TrEMBL record, chains A, B:
Its main location: membrane. Keywords: Cell inner membrane, Cell membrane, Ion transport, Membrane, Potassium, Potassium transport, Transmembrane, Transmembrane helix, Transport. One of its GO terms (cellular component) is plasma membrane. The chain crosses the membrane at residues 20-42, 48-66, 78-101, 143-165, 186-207, 243-261, 282-299, 339-361, 402-422, 459-486. It comes from the Archaea. This is Potassium transporter. One of its GO terms (molecular function) is potassium:chloride symporter activity. PANTHER family: TRK SYSTEM POTASSIUM UPTAKE PROTEIN TRKG-RELATED. It comes from Thermococcus peptonophilus.
Length: 492, 492
């Protein structure tokens, strides 16, 4: 195995990890207190307040104690930042299980699954008969998804899109030219404001189209956060409203667009930056043929054209944006429809958005890269090929990063599919669909995910949601740090 | 679209193409004469001789007339070499259709499919009830597969593994250190001798294990050439002989090993170079878990352990070596078994062998590349990472070539799967299996390929076999040259 230890000082890490743990606990603790505020609107739910207030307070106090020296952290290196991001999602999910265990009486594994699914914006669920649960618990899921969504946007723009990485070059360049992101605190603030405004727009649009206020709030939060958790078992299909479907499609697309694009749209009061964005263009480039073919496959099995088109558009957008809202039972879709949705889920939304998957910028770069390869084979030696996408020039290193990420993503996907097929005798289309959904943080399901699934498969899906959300490398670095560095560090 | 024309002189190309066409016609013409010689062993087949002798003579004469100036070709550039390789397989297949049309009374499209399948070493077939056909026709298929096998090895070591390409670095280095390949003519000669000797070994082993001489000859040729065409509908399963299965496994593995490795084994009279070869090692690295899981999945559906293991070993080797021999009906395999075999077919055999697929060296490099990426994320800046596989150091450019090839391969695979599913309502597992088989030049089938399949799907599979055999880029360069350069050239 690789010999990392001689390069790395593990005692530095312990200090960073302790402070980080403290900050996560404080953050989740504060988050815990918000659902309890719903008691003003729903006074009969006062009996559930302790299940939020107590873990919230405990988490804040313990967190503050752990991170009492946090002012001393000055310089966090890339490896530490990656490990921290991976650890944040693991720990936040663990801290958040209390209401599921105490109110819904779910086992620890199922509760952890639910929390990981919520924090990663996946939306696969261990719960059914959702309307029977208190509003406070349903809000808790939506709230985690909303926070997880803004969280990953900030992590993506700071840690995941790291220096020397293709997506970084693209978005740093844009950010700098706009002078919106001179430092991290400002970045966070501007993006958070945009996120909040868009959420309120969603609540308003849902509300005027006939949703109740609670449903409007939760679905706007999980729609824009591309989380996809609903307050109804039938998801958006519960409302049987084309207008609500349309609002949802709008929110899902907004959530899957890089947030620096939103900034420019807001600032310039023009839709131009939206349609000029290369990731937005490619999203539609993939959606149009996929929607046509899915609709065609639905008509082939006897659906009406209008129904087929509505289902195809909604579910294709839900898949590529990695939201996971449904308006009908996807387990009844023909295999080719499942396959096409799975491909969209693997592609995913824009880098720098709340969406998951491989991300559109990477797929775009690979597609362009193929053209460059053919050009270089055809043109005589010495002919100069410009590796440009839009206004940005990419190096071979950028392209390599993209491809190596994609390879790793596909390798995990295949391993997950194989495991699912061997474990629950699912056929290939269903296994691919469900695994693409978990790893891409989508949440669409053909029914493999349920409380009845084997415990080891739940564990595998938790792992897939986690690595998918952190774009794999962070989690691999985390795992290697824990298993190879920690033991050595402790022995010193 | 790209503007190639200002860089390329098309009139040069016409000259090269005409001479090349002549050479191909001469070569296929000579090949045509060989099956006719079988008349000595089977005198009652004399009535079929004209169907080989006449197209053979015509082809030789027309070819000689076309290439009468061939001595003038001095310098062929990379693009021309790639186009030539792609064109060779297209034209050779077209010239070879006569016996199928005249003896088997097959339509042109089916005959062309059969010839493309034979020349590319795929083995998918439009024919059934094979034993009813004359020996001469059955030999013609095997003979094309054997020639196609040695042909692709030579093309791979000269054109496909082009300068600056990872696999080239590896095998040029080996070749040079062995001093076996100072020039192209010597390369061809040494490799041809090894190929011939191994074929004769195969004939002998089949014969002493109870095969008739004709079957021993044809199966040794299509086994070592990893073509997989049989003289029986049940393929190797016809013989019901564990010994013959074992000989076949031996031949398939030999055919899937880089031929410079064979050279070293022969020269050093030692098996060390075989087991030291990185591609051989990775072949077993993939085979062992795949065989275990396929056998497990067969036992799960009620097979005996002995039967399951025998089927798993045989078909896994047949898949990864891209041979396509079967010993049982794969359409009855559980989906997870089909999926695993499809993955092996996509991986494929060794570069510089007769096998197809992505090739083991590329998969190896991608796997190692992932490790390097993680190392570079974990180690502090400035730490030097050695990009070594075995004794060879790879550049980022090498890795990029490998990944961009793999991406393109997978893109074509997905397009083929989608087309198959939409066109014949196959489920995902079957469509993936059949397309992986066609594009990987394997020839295993779950039954989608048959004379009854739609004409457009036959055309798609012909295309997939062709691009798979030429490692895609050659064929893309060919297509671009024909559609974008030729019209401009003609207009001048
Ligand atoms: K989701
Ligand atoms: K084959």
């Amino acid at each position: 195995m690789l010999d990392f230890r001689k390069h790395i000082n593990v005692s530095d890490d312990f200090f960073v990890v302790r402070n980080l743990t403290g900050s996560i606990l404080e953050g989740v603790g504060v988050a815990y207190l918000v659902p309890a505020l719903l008691v003003w609107a729903y006074p009969d739910e006062i009996k559930y307040v302790p299940y939020f207030a107590l873990p919230g307070m405990a988490s804040i106090l313990f967190g503050a104690w752990l991170s009492r020296h946090s002012s001393k952290i000055e310089d966090v290196n890339l490896r530490q930042a990656m490990v921290a991001a991976a650890f944040t999602w693991l720990l936040a999910s663990l801290v958040s299980v209390v209401p599921f265990m105490k109110i819904a009486h779910m086992p620890l594994l199922d509760s952890y699954f639910e929390c990981m699914s919520a924090w990663t914006g996946t939306g696969l669920t261990m719960m059914s008969n959702l309307q029977s649960y208190p509003k406070m618990l349903l809000f808790w899921r939506a709230w985690m998804q909303w926070l997880g969504g803004i969280g990953i946007v900030l992590v993506a723009l700071t840690v995941l899109i790291r220096p020397g990485v293709a997506a970084a070059r693209l978005y740093r360049a844009e950010a700098r030219s706009e002078r919106i992101l001179p430092n991290l605190v400002n970045t966070a603030k501007v993006i958070f404001e945009i996120y909040l405004v868009l959420t309120l727009v969603g609540v308003y649009l849902y509300y005027i189209n006939g949703m109740g206020l609670f449903d409007a709030l939760t679905h706007s939060m999980t729609g824009l956060g591309t989380g996809g958790m609903s307050t109804h078992d039938e998801s958006i299909g519960f409302f049987h409203s084309p207008a609500i479907n349309a609002v949802t499609i709008f929110l899902m697309i907004m959530g899957a667009v890089n947030f620096t694009v939103h900034y420019r749209v807001f600032k310039n009061r023009s839709l131009k930056p939206f349609f000029a964005d290369i990731q937005v263009r490619y999203m539609f480039f993939f959606l149009i043929p996929a929607v046509s073919l899915i609709a065609y496959s639905l008509v082939q099995v006897g659906d009406s054209l209008a129904n087929a088109l509505q289902g195809a558009v909604f579910h294709a957008v839900s898949a590529i944006s990695c939201t996971g809202f449904q308006i009908s039972d996807l387990s009844k879709y023909p295999e080719v429809g499942k396959f096409l949705l799975a491909v969209l889920m693997v592609i995913g939304g824009g880098a720098g958005s709340t969406a998951g998957g491989i991300k559109l910028i990477r797929i775009t770069l690979m597609y362009e890269s193929l053209k460059w390869t053919i050009e270089s084979a055809i043109l005589p030696k010495g002919a100069v090929i410009k590796r440009k996408v839009g206004n940005y020039v990419f190096s071979e290193e950028d392209i390599q990063e993209v491809m190596s990420f994609t390879m790793t993503y596909v390798a995990f996907l295949l391993a997950g599919v194989l495991y699912t097929m061997l474990r629950v005798h699912a056929n290939l289309a269903d296994a691919l669909f469900e695994v693409a959904s978990a790893q891409g943080n989508v949440g669409l399901s053909v029914g493999i995910t349920s409380p009845a699934m084997p415990a080891d498969l739940k564990f595998v899906y938790i792992l897939l949601m986690w690595i998918g959300r952190l774009e794999i490398f962070s989690t691999l670095v985390f795992i290697i740090s824990v298993f190879f560095l920690l033991p050595g560090g402790l022995r010193r």
